[in-house]
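Fill in residues.
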């Protein structure tokens, strides 16, 4: 059934994302048929140690998203969550567990900042991760995980030896400048060294990418031929998916067997400057479209926020989330003044104030 649907949409049977495409373009009957033929399954996978995570103790809505996200037969999962409900934290856990169950993962987001945020969190998990993208756009705090940096590190020894050989050959060349045929031979050797380096670079890049458990890039960065050559991923995850235009999401999605979109369409929508594009529908993200498909079957919601005081969250809850957003006990009544950083600041400010006061009193006494 999925095949017929794909052919209707002009896609090939061999496409790895066949079930994802069928789900996102098919109607309810198509999805039901795929389910009956055991091609897909919407249930939760059982988690071996659901509440045991080194990262945090997950709330119930997060646990549900986690077990839905780990079901290898589920083609699409949309994780919809207001600010601070732990989408990014949850994705980190999902990635760790997906790798543990043998899946290769491609992680993307619409912006470089969101990708680097994910790289930072994943760096602490001990997974083998690689960030692909223009080095000038990658945050300095995560450059050690960038493809260019890793490849440079691995090529260090090779480059040193090559440079030594080059210097020797150049010296030989100067010594035999009278002998044309010998000089031509040496020039050939020098050229060959350049080609060797190019080959070695290409080989190392492919090695690093295929060894990686998780590859990260922006949505559009996933069009990089280096990522495409790596082969099909088992799982594609898109964070901040509410902010990306649908065509950009298809770039990573078509490189994986299943996908998870996390975000919130009540926050920033895709930035579209052209009125024509807006009228054509580009303003609606894939996440928003997917969450309306198949009576909401694709979506799960996170309902507890772990970031802000309840007075702020309850306003947002009422105005934007039909009163469904709750505040975790740990943050519901916490104030900025309780934060350790602010406390240190207040102490230092009052310290400075008391010194200033003492100086003033001393000055007054001296005047007297
Ligand atoms: N179950 C939890 N227990 C304790 N803290 C949590 C839990 N889940 C998330 N947090 C904390 O809540 C904060 C927000 O999490 P996170 O950044 O993952 O949210 P988000 O949904 O991605 O937010 P945004 O919409 O801004 O991207 C973080 O400080 C995170 O450590
Ligand atoms: Mg986030």
């Amino acid at each position: 059934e999925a095949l017929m649907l794909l052919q209707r949409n002009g896609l090939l049977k061999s496409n790895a994302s066949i079930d994802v495409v069928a789900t996102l373009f098919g109607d309810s009957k198509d999805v039901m048929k795929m389910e009956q033929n055991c091609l897909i399954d919407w249930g939760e996978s059982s988690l071996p140690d659901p509440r045991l995570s080194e990262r945090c103790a997950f709330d119930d809505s997060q646990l549900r998203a986690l077990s839905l996200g780990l079901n290898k037969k589920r083609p699409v999962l949309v994780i919809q969550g207001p600010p601070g409900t732990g989408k990014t934290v949850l994705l980190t856990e999902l990635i760790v567990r997906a790798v543990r169950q043998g899946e290769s993962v491609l992680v993307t987001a619409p912006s470089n900042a969101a990708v680097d945020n994910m790289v930072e969190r994943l760096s602490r998990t001990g997974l083998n991760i690689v960030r692909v993208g223009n080095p000038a756009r990658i945050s300095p705090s995560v450059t050690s995980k960038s493809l260019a940096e890793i490849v440079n590190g691995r090529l260090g020894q090779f480059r040193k030896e090559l440079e030594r050989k080059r210097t020797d050959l150049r010296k030989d060349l100067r010594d035999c400048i009278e002998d044309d045929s010998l000089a031509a031979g040496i020039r050939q050797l020098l050229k060959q060294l350049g080609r060797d380096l190019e080959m070695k670079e290409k080989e190392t890049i492919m090695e690093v990418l295929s060894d990686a458990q998780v590859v990260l890039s922006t949505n559009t960065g996933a069009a990089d031929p280096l990522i495409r050559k790596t082969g099909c991923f088992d799982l594609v995850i898109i964070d901040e998916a509410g902010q990306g235009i649908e065509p950009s999401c298809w770039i990573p999605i078509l490189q994986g067997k299943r996908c998870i979109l996390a975000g919130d369409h009540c926050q920033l929508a895709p930035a579209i400057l052209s009125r024509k594009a807006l009228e054509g529908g580009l303003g609606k993200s894939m996440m928003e479209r997917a969450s309306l498909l198949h009576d909401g079957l694709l979506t799960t919601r996170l309902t507890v926020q772990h970031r802000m005081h309840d007075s702020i969250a309850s306003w947002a809850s009422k105005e934007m989330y039909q009163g469904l957003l709750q505040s975790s006990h740990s943050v519901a009544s916490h104030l900025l003044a309780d934060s350790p950083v602010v406390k240190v600041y207040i102490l230092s400010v009052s310290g400075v104030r008391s010194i200033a006061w003492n100086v003033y009193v001393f000055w007054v006494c001296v005047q007297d």
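The pocket of adenosine-5'-triphosphate (ligand 1) is lined by residues 56-59, 62, 81, 83-89, 264, 306-307 (CB under 6 Å).
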